[in-house]
Amino acid sequence: MSFVMILQLLIVLGALWVGSRYGSLALGAISGIGLAILVFGFGLKPGTPPTDVIYIIIAAVTCAGIMQASGGMDWLIQLAEKMLRKHPDRITFLAPLCTFFLTILVGTGHVVYTLMPIICDIALKKGIRPERPCGVASIASQVGITCSPIAAAVVAFVSISNANDFDVTIPGVLMVSIPSCLCGLMAAAACSYKRGLDLDKDPEFQAKIADPEQRAYIYGSSATTLDKEIPKSAKLAVYIFLCALAVIVMFAIFGALLPGYNSITAIDGAKDISVRDGVILTPKDVAKLGIVVDGVTQTSIVKLKMNIVIQIVMITAAALMIIFCKASPKKAVAGPVWQSGMVAVVAIYGIAWLADTYFSNYLGEIQAMLEDVVKEYPWSIAFVFFLVSVLINSQGAVVVAMLPLAYKLGIAGPVLLGVLPSVYGYFFIPNYPSDIATVNFDRSGTTVIGKYLLNHSFMMPGLVSVAVSTVVAYTLCSFFY
Question: For the chain, which end, N or C, has fewer CB atoms within 10 Å of the first or last residue's CB respectively?
Answer without folding.
Answer: N
